[in-house]
Structure formats: C-alpha cells, structure tokens
Amino acid sequence: MSATAPATRVLVVEDDPHLAAGVMENLRAEGYEVSAAGDAERALEWLRGQHCALIVLDVMLPGIDGLAMCRTLREQGNNTPVLFLTARGDPVDRVRGLEAGGDDYLAKPFHLQEFLLRVRAILRRWDWYRSASATAATAVLRFGGNEVDFRAFHARAWNGDAQELTEKEAMILKVLAEHAGEIVSREDLLERVWGYDVFPSTRTVDNFILRLRKRFEKDPANPRHFLTVWGVGYRFLTEGEP
Amino acid sequence: MKAARVFQLTTLALLVVSAVQVGYWVFDQRSYTIEKVHAARAAYAEQAAAAQALLDAGVSAGRIQQMLPPIVVEGGHASLAPKVEEMLRTEERRRYNRYAWEGAFFMLALGACITVIGRALRAEARVLEEQDNFLALVSHQFKTPLASLQLSLETMALRTLSPEQARTLIDRMLADLARMEAMVTQILESARLERGRVDFKSEPLDLGAAVTRVIAHLEERARQERIAISCDIEPGLQVVSDPLALDVVVRNILENALSAVTPHGGGSIALSARAQNGEVELSVRDSGVGFRSGDGTRLFERFTRLHPGGGSTHYGTGLGLFIVQRLMHLAHGRVSAHSDGVGQGARFVLTWPAAAQGQRS
Question: What's the pTM?
C-alpha cells in the first residue's frame, strides 16, 4: 500500500472515542481513507451499503461484541479482512478471535508502529490474493473433479456438492496451488496466510488442511491431492497421487 | 475457599448416598413385610388343614381349639379365626404406614439438606464467575485509556504535528489520565460496597444543602458545556442517609446527567424535590441522549455504558450509577431511571426515607 495509489478504505469499529480518534488519525496520516462506527450494529449497517479493504474491530463493544460481529459478517459471505483490537491478549482469546474469522489480533495497549505494520501486512496479503486470482486462468483451480473459484470463495466438489470456502481456506489453497508439486512448510503457510506471530502453533495449519481434505478428497483418510510430508509440511498435487 | 468446597461436595455426596440408602431400606422393609405376612398366612393355612384333618379323624372341636388356638371350628369346618386374620391385616397396614412416614421424613430431611448445599454451591459458583467477570472488566476498563494514552504519545513521537494537533493530543491524554484516576477511586468504592465494608451512618440531612454543594462543584463544567442547571428544592427537606453517601449519590447522578447532555452541545438539567408518604423524592431531569426504555435497569449494572463517550471527553467508568444504586440501597432508599427513548432525555428519581419531624437538626 502506498499513499499515492487510490486510497484504501479502512473501517474502524471502536467504542472508545479517544482510541478511535487516535487510530483514525494515524490511519489517515498513512494515506488510508477511514470510516468509523461506535458499535457493531452501526458497523454492520455501514457494511451493507459500502465496502472497505480492512475492518479494525474492537472485541468488547457495547451490544453485539466484535467476535459475534465478525462471525455474522462471515456468515453473510463478507470476506473483508478483520484486525481485532482487544484488552484480552492471552492465547485462548487470540485463537477465539481467529476462529471467529479474524485475520490478526492486537492486544491493547499496542504500539502504534506495530499496529500500522499489521495493517499493512494484512492488506499486502489480500493484495497478493486478489492479484493472484485476477486473471481467468488464476481465478479458477481444477483438480480431481473439484472446481474452486477463488474470487467468489466458492467451490464445487468432485461429488457435485457446493462448498463455500472461508477466506483462510481459500488462501491456503491458493498458496498450495501456486506451488503445486512442491513441498510447502507449515511455517511458510502461516507466514503467507496469517502473517508472522499470530498463531501460537502450526497445528492450526494442520486443522485447515484436514478441512480442505474433507471438502475435496474422495477419501479424506487417504488423501491424493493434499499430501502430508512428515516433519516438513504439505505437498499439493493437481493430478492426484498415482 | 477450596477446603470449604471439598467439605460441601463431600457432604452432598454423603447425603445423596444416604437418600439412596433410605430408599433401599424402605423398599427392603416392604418386601420383608410382604414375605413375613405371606409366611404367616401359609402357616395358619397349614394349621387350619391340620385341624380339619383332626376333626375328620374324630377329635373333638374343643380339644382342637385347645391345641390350635387361632383355629375355630364351626359346623364341622375348621378355619382361621376372623380376629387373627384381622390382626394380620392390621399389622401389615401398620408396618406399611411406618415405612411410608419414616421413609418420607428421612427423604424430606435429606432432600432439604441437598437443596441447601446445592444452592450454596451454585451461589458460590456465581460469585466466582462474577469475580472473574469483574476482573476481566476492570482490566478492559484500564487497558482502553492506557491504549489511548500510549497511542497519543507514540503519535507525538512518530509524527510532526501542528500546535493545534499537539494541543488536541495533550487534552486527550489529560482526559485519559483523569478517566483512570476516577476509575481507581470508583473501583475501590464499588469493591468496598460489594463486600459490605462500609461504615454507613444514618442521620437526618438537609437535601437542599447537599444538592447546592454538588452543583457548586460542577457549575464550572456545566458552564463550559453550555448546560443550564436549575434547582427547585423547598428549604428544610430532610432525608435519612450517610452524609458522604448523599454527596456521592447526588454528584454521580449529576455527573451522569452532564455527560448525557454534553454530546448535544448544550441543554438543561432540572432538579426538583418533594416530600410524600414519609419519603423524599429528588428528580433529576436532563435534555440529554436518553436511552432505550428497556435499558432502565441495565444502567445500574457495573460497567454498563449505554452511550460510550458520544464525543464527550468526560465519559463514565460504568461504575457511577452502580455505586448510586448500592448507596441508595444502604440508605433504605431507591433509584430509578426513565427515558422515552434515545435522544429524548432522561429522568432519574432518587427516593430516601424522610427524617421524622423530631429528628430535624
């Protein structure tokens, strides 16, 4: 993201006016366009009519909390990335936030530069995902009778089942597909999809691979496309293992 | 705490085992009685059969009666005497009654004990959960102004600011500090109230004088925020309360009203008081942001902020009204909040017991 490109819009959902003002001023200073909402209801209302590239979302909001709001968004099929801000920063709360569909998690009080870095990192990951899915050739992935539309986060499985992908599943699949046939380590997947120190363990990646196998493998217990390379990571094969 | 819990749980387990034991005892006794009565009936039937055989063999009825007293011989036929049959039935009924009463009594007693302990355990669990929530909320409440302070300072360090921008940040930081200071005071106050550790005096106090004191304290802020405060309290109205508590209650209610009016860029707060039915009622009406009519009770819960900030720099900790409610409760009074809806203003009514005429100071 550079300040000269058409401004990227960020929605700040924070009930504390001082913190909201501080965050907004700094985002504006970095060249983003900023909108604000004091609670989840207003934010959801705003999102019904408008788009943004990122939502900075406080977890403890009056009324609907940030986690519930994020889940609602994802259920509505809105994949806008979310950066959670919260007073609770222990690992369990982090995982909860990411499970609710968040992309990153920052505990209050936070360092301004770290905040800006994370905003940039999330937007960069999404820029990569969007540009990597921009052409007709890269927007759709076909393997083993499955067809994945990266732009619509939609897939049709080998048995004809329609599948709605979460943005993380789509991103992991994208990374694997870009490196089809090669070994991709768990750390690489974490780095590409979540960024640096978001997750406490690489187990999370394994869980996502299990989910992808369930969606796309004929026999998830004996995968032919999403192969585990013991001790290293994963290898994705479009043709399927012979 | 932990040992008490182990004790409670053990007692609960013992009680449950006892209840099962009592149930089994009643069942066992009933089976035993049925068995005994059945055996007695069989034995009597054998005696009657033997008597009949003797009778058929030519033994006299008188001799048979002598040998087998429970048997009567009538018209050449030996049978069990009706009074023996009656006695058996009575005994059977008596035993059943006893088991029913004793069993029911023990079950009731055990049931009562189990309920009492179960309730205590539930209450304790609720207290623990509330404490956890309280801690989480307190930490959240502190981390937010801290985060704001840090953000303001780091913004100053990172960016080149105009004097106006710097002024805004400094004002914001000062307000954050004031907020944290108010929070420390109120958290300590509410924790003390929560544990009932307050030395609460009950004495007749002049309501008008207390209100005037508080208004004088807040006048400057009201003037800056363009809020007109009017006060219509007839002189001599006396309430029974603790002098400090009365000041805190009136101040918190007035500060709450100021914070509600400020986002409107000015307005009014009207106080009025009257005595009725041995009580004194103070009404505080504001032209502020109001609240949804359903939120009238939620307002008084800890850390409830229905209008967080709303652009005001003086916004609450979410403890002020909670403290008001607790203090009013200690003064044997009450507080209620009314609003016709968001943007419609609000009315808070404080009610104290009036001081008796003779008590006037």
Answer: 0.60
